[in-house]
Batch of 2 targets.
Target 1
Amino acid sequence: MIARFKSALISGLFLLLASAAQGAPLLVVGHKNPDSDSIFAAISLAYLKTQQGTPAVAIAQGKPNPESQFVLDYFGLQAPPLELKVAGNKVVLVDHNSYSQAPDDIREAELVGIVDHHNLGGILTNDPVEVLIQPVGSTNSIIWQLYERAGVAIPSAIAGGMLSAIFSDTLAFRSSTTTDLDRAAVKSLASIANIKDIQEYGQQMLSAGEADLKTAPIRSLLQRDFKNFDMSGNKVGVAQLTAVSFDLLKNRKAEYLDDMQTLQKEQGYKSLVLMLTDIQSEGTELLVVGENQLEIGRAFHASMENHSAWVAGLMSRKKQVIPVLEKVFDHRSPSL
């Protein structure tokens, strides 16, 4: 742990010195309500860019969630500073590529790059930018590939953050988004980070992430991994909570539904969807509020009762939920 802390400290000092010597650095930022992939993609890509001669710093649009904080502490890394304004700076987006997830003033910044594993989100640019989007389980898998191609050594602490993000985003390799690249990246990164048993470490990380599911305020949990979408002119929110101990999620279902209905009215959502994902059983209980819950249930071939439906095998918001919801709204009347 001491060696990891020294590595992170040296890396941080290097970034500060580089920034001071060469002017304003490139900003690397993940999406709003950042998860582990977003946090560690920003850290790992900023370090790589700096090593390649372009001073860069990682920033974040939110505080690390409990899982990400566990990883930061475990490997002695510092969380990216909270920064909501990027106007006037050169920016690279990681783990997202849509206006709804980017900093609010992204149109006033110079967007120079995107590294992501999601579908195209509709961002427009005046000039050509570097874009790398691959259908893999984690943005950090793509960044690992960039390190390999560049021949740049990955510090042990950063490697630990990257493997943690991949393991998290693929739900311990159970998600349908998992690819051979994700597995190869974790194997390589685990060796660098000196993680002997990735499954054992991964269980520690996932357990840390669900430590406050029983006690945290419902609104903070609902917004922990929450994303906004514009689906054919309809404002749709989709959140996801995952747990190995599924009772921690299931036992607060009534509270989630109450707050979802409040949030829908407060912020004008057409529909709100919360995925309560059971990692062990490899399925998700969908909670839906809005005018079209029955239609959403049918789209997932599930029976929606009291705003709720269990869908076996449903694990990925990106691959299994968003495309289905987009089709639902594509076929709905414009009056809805």
Note: The chain has twelve helices and ten strands.
Target 2
Amino acid sequence: MHWKPTLIAQLEQGPAVWITVINAQGSVPRGQGTVMVVFEDEFLGTIGGGHLEFEAIAEARKCLRVPESRQTLPIEKRFALGPSLGQCCGGALVLKFEWVTHQDQARLLQIIDLQTDNRFKPLALFGGGHVGKALINVLAPLPFHVRWIDSRDEIFPQDVPSQVVCEHSNPVEAAVNDLVPNSRVLIMSFSHAEDLDILMACLWRHRQHQDLPFIGLIGSATKWATFKRRLAERGFSEAECAHVTCPIGVLGIEGKEPEVIAVAVAAQLLQA
């Protein structure tokens, strides 16, 4: 749902039809509450693509282009995902079509924000190096609110996605204390010493609150073996160390380029 700025700008130029999935049964591409908005020459969002979306956009644009049809809105239409639509999903959707203008902007943004709050997960990314920058780009369209943290305040690029907040923290591990509960954590700072400090802070917090569901550390199996030994020396148990994922990234992706690692790690976050 990263098209809020475009939605605001487009509504200032003219009206649109807002489409909401109000009922979903069986095998369907998107669930109840999914929304998209259709303008005369563009659309934002998706209710699943394919012929279903083609028909929904056509219906919306008929309402936009034929003045008389605007008076019939809002309407609800049922679409069966069978042979008539050329889709063999087997389910059915009920779509609601609404006429909207710039006067509806606040209500529509509230709907988007509610969906964002329900779907987007908090993620703390420690490290602004090559992999960190690549990961920010990969995460841009994905459902995460990212807190991007580094001890070097000059490391962050000027332009970051709207759901990313950059933070300078020195010492960097101090930021762990006030992470949003249930934050996913990725640790990839510029030094192993910082990585260890951040990791210990995360494990200490998780020992107290059990509220960091995923703690990922970039590195090799050799690095993790060294870190486990140092963590044990500092009083962390085998069970606590088992809560750490290292190396990070889904299995089977062998490339070491920052962009490749970023894709593998993003996929792992979605799995988790």
Note: The longest helix spans residues 192-209.
